[in-house]
Amino acid sequence: MYSQMEKTEGGDPKLQADMTDKERAFQDKIDRNIKIEPRDWMPDNYRATLIRQIGQHAHSEVVGQLPEGNWITRAPTLERKAILLAKVQDEAGHGLYLYAAAETLGVTRDQLTEDLLAGRMKYSSIFNYPTLNWADMGAVGWLVDGAAILNQVPLQRTSYGPYARAMVRICKEESFHARQGFHIMMKMAKGSDAQRKMAQDAVNRLWFPVLMMFGPSDKDSVHTAQSLAWRIKIDTNDQLRQKFVDQTVPQIEYLGLDLPDPGIKWNDETGQYDFSDPDWSEFFNVIKGNGPGNVDRMKARRAAWDDGAWVRDGLLAHARKKAAAKQLAAE
Ligand SMILES: [Fe+2]
Ligand SMILES: [Fe+2]
Q: Could you say which ligand is closest to the alpha carbon of residue 145?
């Protein structure tokens, strides 16, 4: 979902001449668009980078349920509640597909969760912002899931088979998420004065944090070359951010709302919109754990993990019992 996390350990990709035969065959496969599968040989760094990227993507899906789950009990109608509930459940499913994809690389889901809880792994910075009014449910679906889609659609073509296939399923559900969000925004923006104000307030608060979802500017993000060569990353952060702005400006005009950036202007020469940079110091501060919601999000995850311990223990005990019975029958 979130290219801000797609940093590789290595900087520049290896030159053909410096590669071992195995590495050359591996790169050749990627260049010919042949998927890498779990049992195939792969460089250690490819494996490590993917574990981090897929793991952090999975964490983002699960933590991303929290700001929206917060509104399920307060949805304004039964229909809105049912839609929001389905959307939040989808995100849990996305987490599940992605943890399963990461497990094919030799980590366990427990390890990944422990790394998250210990602060060794991150999740998308956007989920550290609070959702303060009902229009936030619209803005999140429309803008946050909209940004996620731009990131995830190219990842359907990523080089690692299980990750690419998980993305295909996830993208189908994401388009529903963005549509339900935009539908809420349409109702709010064209509703009463109070509703329009709530919609504008949500956009004002979320616009720059959403731009940050694509990660730091390419010029400050020195580690993407190897990820691009390995097709773990398909587009750069700035390319995706530009695409997002270009697709969103006509939508905000349709809603009759404003973006909180006086710098947004069509540029005839580039054929794209110019826009202002987000405050990157805020981004790095949130990533470090100092955003408005970091402490609460981690508290909720830790509580869920601790409260679920008896379920995991029960499942393990059941699996052991079944295995023992099977062994006994075989003897
Ligand atoms: Fe998702
Ligand atoms: Fe989503």
A: 2
**Spatial separation of the C-alpha atoms in residues 9 and 6, rounded to whole Å:** 10
Spatial CA neighbour of 63 closest among 103, 106, 94, 101: 94
How far is ligand 1, taken at its centre, from the CA of residue 72, in Å? 17
Expressed in angstroms and rounded, the spacing between residue 105 Cα and the centre of ligand 2 is 24
> Cβ distance 263 to 255 under 8 Å?
no
CA torsion angle 266 269 270 273 (round to 10): -10
Task: Tell me the three state secondary structure of residue 36.
Answer: strand
How high is the pLDDT of residue 82?
A: 97
Non-local (6+) Cβ contacts of 210 within 8 A are 126, 143, 144, 147, 244
Centre of ligand 2 to C-alpha 118, Å, is 25
Instruction: Give the ligand with the smallest distance to the CA of 92.
Output: 1
Question: Could you tell me the distance, in angstroms and rounded to a whole number, from the CA of residue 100 to the centre of ligand 1?
Answer: 15
State pTM to two decimals: 0.91
Model confidence at 16, pLDDT cuts 50, 70, 90, reads: confident
| Å from CA of 210 to ligand 1 middle | 15
Closest CA to 128 of 288, 249, 277: 288
pLDDT at 10 over 50: no
- Residue 34: closest CA among 150, 166, 164: 164
Distance 177 CA to ligand 1 centre (A): 8
* Ligand 2 mean position, distance from CA 174 (Å): 5
Q: Is 167 helix (H, G, I), strand (E, B) or coil?
A: helix
- Ligand positioned closest to the Cα atom of 61: 1
Distance 116 CA to ligand 1 centre (A): 18
CB 45 within 8 A of CB 109: no
Q: How far is CA 106 from CA 125, 225, 265, in A?
A: 26, 25, 48
Q: Copy the structure tokens of residue 24.
A: 């050359």
